[in-house]
């Protein structure tokens, strides 16, 4: 897709525009799946037709959080589990921005689980990429919400006694209007899914399986995937919540039994986004908040008036 330059001429967008001029040396380990997310995202951007100046990438904390350092756009490396609230505020203030939030499984499904649930429920228009390596990577391999039952780590030396979270089902029941799973070993599908997620108007959740060769060699993120849309074994309607839910449960059960099912699981194109709902109630102005003019003197006077009245 194309964009327009400063003097209004149409031009092609190139994936290399998303590589910072002073390219920082990525500190991800060799073979890390996080490289796959970066590559797929850079490839998807020209398809979506957005330039770095029109894009905001908000990340959490973890190996995954470093994504915003290696991707050229507006960026915000936030705190652990808090990428979504930052992304929501930015989208509310400037709805014209292409907003992407990204973080790890510990970040998004653990400490930030509450924000995940409510951002999905409210259908904020953004793409949320969760790097799912089934462990806490940055802090050296502790058990995470997606680690399988029995998974041994420094924090669970006898094996985890907990059932892993079901990210796809959780997104669906919370209210996400687009839900997909892809994998770093799966670059073509990953690019297609990220493109579709960004083009979707509403909350798009992508559970992105990323291998961590340093701390989690046992995870199934390496094994060949089956695309549920391309396979004759799976015939379901991605616009039907019930059928999507059944398919998600199959995929979530299969993951820990060694079969990786990826692809699109749910897509609701009719549900209005949070911003549309807010504008319909008259609660949100048409003009972006980011472009509102604030008269500082007037605002101060208003504050003093308010204080006087409450004395
Ligand atoms: C509030 C808070 N608690 C704990 C930490 C320590 N911490 C940093 S990264 C991390 C886990 C990262 O795991 P995950 O989110 O899965 O990302 P990954 O490194 O695997 O990409 C933790 C616990 C922190 N930075 N902030
Ligand atoms: S520790 Fe794991 S997740 Fe982190 S950079 Fe290394 S391979 Fe990637
Ligand atoms: Mg992780």
Automatic annotation (TrEMBL):
<keyword id="KW-0560">Oxidoreductase</keyword>
<dbReference type="InterPro" id="IPR011766">
    <property type="entry name" value="TPP_enzyme_TPP-bd"/>
</dbReference>
<dbReference type="GO" id="GO:0016625">
    <property type="term" value="F:oxidoreductase activity, acting on the aldehyde or oxo group of donors, iron-sulfur protein as acceptor"/>
</dbReference>
<feature type="compositionally biased region" description="Basic and acidic residues">
    <location>
        <begin position="266"/>
        <end position="280"/>
    </location>
</feature>
<dbReference type="Pfam" id="PF02775">
    <property type="entry name" value="TPP_enzyme_C"/>
</dbReference>
<dbReference type="InterPro" id="IPR029061">
    <property type="entry name" value="THDP-binding"/>
</dbReference>
<protein>
    <submittedName>
        <fullName>Thiamine pyrophosphate-dependent enzyme</fullName>
    </submittedName>
</protein>
<dbReference type="GO" id="GO:0030976">
    <property type="term" value="F:thiamine pyrophosphate binding"/>
</dbReference>
<dbReference type="InterPro" id="IPR051457">
    <property type="entry name" value="2-oxoacid:Fd_oxidoreductase"/>
</dbReference>
<dbReference type="GO" id="GO:0044272">
    <property type="term" value="P:sulfur compound biosynthetic process"/>
</dbReference>
<dbReference type="GO" id="GO:0006082">
    <property type="term" value="P:organic acid metabolic process"/>
</dbReference>
<dbReference type="GO" id="GO:0045333">
    <property type="term" value="P:cellular respiration"/>
</dbReference>
<feature type="region of interest" description="Disordered">
    <location>
        <begin position="266"/>
        <end position="290"/>
    </location>
</feature>
<dbReference type="InterPro" id="IPR011896">
    <property type="entry name" value="OFOB"/>
</dbReference>
<feature type="region of interest" description="Disordered">
    <location>
        <begin position="140"/>
        <end position="165"/>
    </location>
</feature>
<feature type="domain" description="Thiamine pyrophosphate enzyme TPP-binding">
    <location>
        <begin position="61"/>
        <end position="208"/>
    </location>
</feature>
